[in-house]
Amino acid sequence: MHIHTFEDFSLLREKISESKTADLGKTRIIVYGSTCGLASGAHKVLEAVREEIKACNGDQALVLEHGCMGCCFIEPYISISQEGLDFTVYGYLDGEKAGEVVRSHLQKGEILEKYTVDLTMPFFAAQVRRVTELLGEIDPLRIDDYIAHDGYTALAMALKTDGKDVLEEVKAAGLRGRGGAGFPTGKKWEFARTAAGEQKYIVCNADEGDPGAYMNRAELEGNPHAVLEGMAIAGYAIGASRGYIYVRAEYPLAVETLKQAIAQAREYGFLGSNIFGSSFDFDVELFLGSGAFVCGEETALLASLEQKRGNPRTRPPFPAIAGLFGKPTVINNVGTLFNVPLIIRKGAKWWSSVGSETTNGTKVFCLTGKIRNSGLVEVPMGTSMREIVFAIGGGIPAEKEFKAAQLGGPSGGFVPNEHLDLPIDYESLQTIGSIMGSGGMVILDEDSCMVDAAKFFLQFDRDESCGQCLPCRRGLPLMVNYLEKISDGKGEMADLEALVNLADSVKKTSLCALGQTAANPTLSTLRFFRDEYEAHILDRKCPAGVCRPLIQFSISEKKCVGCGLCKKICPENAIVGEIKKAHRIIPGKCLKCGLCKDVCKFDAITVR
Predict the structure, then answer these.
(1) Number of other CB atoms surrounding residue 236 within 10 Å
(2) Distance (Å) of CA 536 to CA 245, 452, 530
(3) CB-based contacts of 188: which residues, under 8 Å, 6+ apart?
(4) pLDDT value at position 409?
(5) Cα–Cα dist 539/535, whole Å
(6) Is the four-CA dihedral 101, 102, 107, 108 of positive or negative sign?
(7) What is the layout of strands, in order, in the sheet containing 440-445?
(8) Which partner from 166, 287, 481, 606 sits 20 to 30 angstroms from 257, CA to CA?
(9) Are 414 and 388 in contact (CB under 8 A)?
(10) Is the predicted pLDDT of residue 1 greater than 80, yes or no?
C-alpha cells in the first residue's frame, strides 16, 4: 500500500489496528534474536519452539522473531503471553529448555518458574525506556508493527507544519548529540538550514567502533524505522532531499534489517517523492564502512562516503556549512535520530521532563565487563554511576570490589570508586577528565590492572589512527612504548612525567578528535591510580597480577590434589607431577597464560 495523503495514513493505521485486534486471543511466543541472541543460541531455541508448536497443533499460537530487549545477560530468552496468564519472560534457555517451557504453557497452562526472569528487578524496573521502548516489542522486519506503535506519525505531524517549526521544537527540547561531545542538535540543524545551497544532506553515523559498545547495532536491528523516520524529519527541517546511513559492514544483521526497512518505507511512501502528498522529497541510501575507527570522526566519515581515504580534515568549515561533496550536511548518530520522532510526536516539554540541569532526556548505555547484568541500559541523564552499576547492573560478580568504569571508549576516561555518585552528564564527566562518548560503559573490578587497561585503549588508538598528522603518527606509538616499558617492569619514575607531557602535546596538536582524546584513558589512570604505576616501577610488581613479566604462577602443595587438569591444558608442558600428588610449575617454561588457574577447581594456582 502506498500512502498518498494523510487520510491514507489514517486508514492504514485503522486497518493495522483491526488486524492486531484479531490476533488478541492468540498465544504470542516471542524469540528474541538480535546478533547477541543468535550468538548465544537463539536459532536453536526458535527451532525448538516451532517444533513444539507443530507437535501441539498450536494453531492459536503466534511464533514471532523480534530484536533484543537489551537484557543480554539472560540470553537466549523468549517471552510468552497467553490469555489467563501474565506476560512471562524465560531466560538462560537452550533448545531443550525452550521446548519444556512451551509444553508447560500450551498443554498445562502453567508457568515454569525455574526459568522465569523477574521483570520487577531493577535492571528492568529502574530504567526509563524511551529510545529502547520498542526493542523486543516489535518485529523489526514488519513496518506494520512500527506503525501500530505510532510509527511515522511524527513525520506526518512534521509535514503539516513548516520545517522551521520542527527545528524550533528540537531546539526547545534541548536535544544534544548522543554520539560524542553533546553538541546541541537544533543548533547544528540551524547552521545547515541557513547555509547557502539547494542540495543538502542528512548523514546517520552508525559507524559504532568503541570496544564494548553495541547500542547502535541493537537499535538498528530492533527498530530500524525509527532512524529512517528521524532522518526524514531532520531532512525536512533543514531542506535536505537525500540521506545516507554510514553503517559498519561488520554488522550484517543490522545491514540486512536496514535494507528491508528502507524497501518497506519506500513501498509505503514514507521515503521517496511527494511524501504524504506534500512537496517534500527524501530518500535514504546505505553505505557500508570498512571498519576503520577513525571514520567515526565526522569529516573522515564524509571522506569515506565520497569514496576517498577516510582521513579527517581541518575545521572550519564545519560539515553543516560544507560537508558531503561540499554541500551543507548534518551528521547525527543513531541515538540522536531515534529521539527525534519522540520529540515531534510527544512534544519538547514531555521529552525534556527528565534529565539533568545541563542535559535533557535519557541516554542508552552499553553495560559490559565485570558486571552481573550486562546489556543495554537507558536512564535519565544525570543518573549516578552507582545507580547503574549496583542497582540496574546488579553489582560485581563473585563478590569482587568495583575498581572503575571506563566511559566513552578509547576517547574516554575511567571513573573510579570515589566518583561513583557523580551524575552522568557531559559537563560532570569533563570535571574528572572523562567524556560520555557514544555510551560504552566497561566495568573493571579489583582484578583489573589500570596500567594494562590504559595500554589496551592506547594501543587501539595507535592501530586505528589514520597517521595523517605527526602528533598521532609519532606521539601515540611513543606513548604506547612508555606504557609497555612500565608494564614490563622496566619503567622509571621519570617516565611518568614524560608520559604526561607527551600526552598533553598530542592532545593539543592533533588534527582530529581521535588524537585529541586518545590520551584520556592514560591521563585518568595516572590521576586516579598513580599508586599502581608506582608499584610497577618501584616494586616491579603488578598489584592485580595481570602484567605477565611481573607475575609468577605457582601451585600450592597444600591445595593441589593432583587431578592433572592443569597439566593437560598447559600449552608448553610446563606443569609436572603424578596423579593424586601435588604438581609443580617449571618457571622457565611457563608462558604465564593463566589457563591452569582458569581450570583449577581447588584454587591451588597462585599468582604473585
Answers:
(1) 24
(2) 46, 11, 10
(3) 177, 320, 330, 332
(4) 86
(5) 5
(6) positive
(7) 375-380, 362-369, 440-445, 402-407, 413-416
(8) 166
(9) no
(10) no
Task: Give the residue among 432, 442, 383, 361 at the shortest CA–CA distance from 407.
Answer: 442
- Beta carbons within 8 Å of 39's beta carbon, 6+ residues apart: none
pLDDT of residue 210: 87
CB-CB contact of 47 with 100 (8 Å): no
Q: Is residue 390 within 8 Å of 433, Cβ to Cβ?
A: no
Residue type, 381: M
Residue pair 27/62 in contact (Cβ under 8 Å)? The answer is yes
pLDDT by residue (tens digit) across 337-352? 999 999 999 999 999 9
Q: What is the pLDDT of residues 197-228, one digit of tens each?
A: 999 999 999 999 888 899 999 999 999 999 99
Q: Does the predicted model carry a pTM greater than 0.85?
A: yes
- Three-state secondary structure string covering 237-263: HHCCCEEEEEEECCCHHHHHHHHHHHH
Whether 514 contacts 465, CB under 8 Å: yes
Report residue 553: phi and psi, to 5°: -95, 140
Single-letter amino acid code for the residue at 141 = L
